[in-house]
Amino acid sequence: MRSTIAFKASSGLFRCIALPLFAIFLAIPKAAFAVPVGAGPLLWSDEFSGSSVDATKWTARVGQGRDDYYTPQALSVSGGMLTIKTFTESGTHYNGWIDTSQTYLPTYGYFESRIQFNTSQGMWSAFWLQTPMWPNPIFGDPGASGTEIDVIEHRRVNSSGSDYRSRIHMANHWDGYGPEHQSSSSTQNKSGSGMGNGSWHTFGLLWEPTKYTFYFDDQPTWTHTTAISNRSEYMILSSEAQTDSWAGDIPAAGYGSLATSTTNMLVDYVRVYTLVSQPLLPGDFDHDGDVDGGDFVVWQTHFPTPSGATLSTGDADADGDIDGADFVAWQTHFPFTPALAAISAPEPPALVLAAMVCVSFCYLRRSRNKCAIANASSAGLQGG
């Protein structure tokens, strides 16, 4: 009787904790991604396979832009892709903007997105990175302050009205946007590669400690070696509208309503890979350079995952799943920060957190062991 009660209690606990997480991760696509040039394992991705913007990965901007207003209505996800639409209603121009400022801020790596642009005059669309130091940079120190890195900006026309649909624009901006602002950029005509409105292409950035290398359709197209950011930054997918700008004038009649506008940016995926030369720190699941309680939360949230896992979801030993071995890897390296790396003993709060985590994990294992004992006892009773 006691064995039966223990089994029911243990299996109930397992169902409450493990099964919902297991169900969630069964829905994650298990596609095998080709590793791009200069990149290592996949760290983070969004394949836009759901029916709305994933709020655990992106934050939608709401509010006044340039000559436009950012609204979640401009954002939609269907058919395995994100659509950012530019439209006009009642004389107001609307656009969409999503970023990872609240969820994911990596340092270095290979960043890639597959995008189709359908731009119109007076607006442009972009895939770019921004420093959280904006708009208050450390002037004269872009490495510590971070920079604006434009992986790709696309516009239909330039300020003179010339057709720019076949051109790609890449840039690096630092020291703010005031009198001290500095920048370097490259605009290239890719008509020979079929670049233009309505065509799909991949755009990438290999961000290393000493240089940026920009990619177009898997080929390096521009390298920048000055004012390189050495701090964490967040990704942005956006469209912006401004009349009398580098993208020309907004059409007098606007862009059409939300239902009728054909001005948009379609995104198939966004993927982030570690550098080949960048060592992976086991247990640093959120890729912020340390191993702390935040990384445990990542592991706990995704435990258990039987397959298709990555470091960013809690797979410390790179075997494709999330299990107790990954917890042990986290525990072994906890706590680690660059500042504490030379300290032999962790601080008391760290020990307390580690003890609490160990108790929680041991409780889960003890509960599962009870299940096994109960099953054995039940089998024995039935056999007798």
Describe this structure in words.
By secondary structure, the chain is α+β, with helices and mostly antiparallel strands. It is 22% helix and 30% strand. The protein is built from five helices and 19 strands. The chain has helices at 2-26, 142-145, 293-302, 324-333, 348-383, and strands spanning 39-46, 59-60, 63-64, 69-70, 75-78, 81-85, 87-89, 92-95, 97-99, 109-118, 123-130, 148-155, 167-174, 182-189, 200-208, 211-216, 219-224, 234-241, 264-275. Strands 1, 5, 6, 10, 15, 16, 17 and 19 form an eight-stranded antiparallel beta sheet that branches. Strands 2-9-18-11-12-13-14 form a seven-stranded antiparallel beta sheet, with no helix packed on it. α1 (2-26) packs across α5 (348-383). The chain is globular and about 60 Å long. Residues 2-32, 339-352 and 370-384 have low confidence and may be disordered.
Helices and strands in order:
Blueprint: H1 2-26, E1 39-46, E2 59-60, E3 63-64, E4 69-70, E5 75-78, E6 81-85, E7 87-89, E8 92-95, E9 97-99, E10 109-118, E11 123-130, H2 142-145, E12 148-155, E13 167-174, E14 182-189, E15 200-208, E16 211-216, E17 219-224, E18 234-241, E19 264-275, H3 293-302, H4 324-333, H5 348-383
Parallel strand pairs: 4-8
Antiparallel strand pairs: 1-19, 2-9, 3-4, 5-6, 6-19, 7-8, 9-18, 10-15, 10-19, 11-12, 11-18, 12-13, 13-14, 15-16, 16-17
Helix pairs in contact: 1-5
